[in-house]
Write a structure and sequence with these properties.
By secondary structure, the chain is mostly helical. Helix 1 runs antiparallel to helix 2, helix 1 runs antiparallel to helix 4 and helix 3 runs antiparallel to helix 4. It is elongated, with a radius of gyration of 17 Å. The structure holds protoporphyrin IX containing FE.
Length: about 150
């Protein structure tokens, strides 16, 4: 079961990334060109948030069953357990919180241009955090590309 969830969580990163990149740069382009905020823009923002929340659920499940999450005196001394117990999880929770706040603020904003500006600011900050927080294969944590 652990392996299945790791694979789902690992592969699902690409869906989250794809939607987050699309929503962020669409918002930037439409903000700079004073375009109207359409239903499709709202849907893209929503599905981006939904994918992030699904990834959060998978991540939280892993947090309780992964052997890379540990609570002992050595947790913070060993790079692998420090990364998954503290760094990865905290960075990602923060990123997902930013996406959620950005989505809510965008929905509440009344001015169309402000909607795009808000989406861009929050989703871009989240995108940077997600890119920094992913255990890419070259970071040496033994994680895969998919
Ligand atoms: C957008 C959010 C997230 C992304 C893109 C993401 C991505 C990833 C990736 C790519 C891996 C490596 C999987 C592999 O070994 O192939 C991973 C592992 C892990 N993630 Fe996340 N993650 C996210 C959020 C979270 C959150 C919020 C938590 C916990 C609260 C979490 C907990 C974990 C744990 C514990 C592992 C290690 C699993 C293991 O190998 O035993 N993740 N994550």
């Amino acid at each position: 079961m652990l392996n299945g969830i790791i694979h789902a969580h690992s592969g699902f990163r690409w869906i989250v990334l794809l939607l987050l990149v699309a929503a962020t740069f669409k918002a930037l382009l439409k903000w700079r060109s004073n375009a109207p905020f359409t239903e499709a823009d709202g849907k893209l923002n929503f599905f981006t948030m939904l994918s992030a929340h699904l990834q959060l659920l998978l991540g939280l499940t892993l947090y309780f069953i992964s052997d890379k999450v540990a609570f002992s005196g050595d947790t913070m001394k060993v790079a692998l357990t420090r990364f998954f117990t503290a760094e990865h999880s905290l960075i990602m929770v923060l990123a997902i919180a930013l996406i959620t706040i950005g989505y809510t603020k965008t929905k509440k904003a009344t001015e169309e241009n402000l909607k795009f500006k808000t989406t861009f600011q929050y989703y871009f900050a989240a995108l940077v955090l997600v890119l920094v927080g992913i255990p890419w294969p070259f970071r040496g944590f033994g994680s895969a590309w998919f």
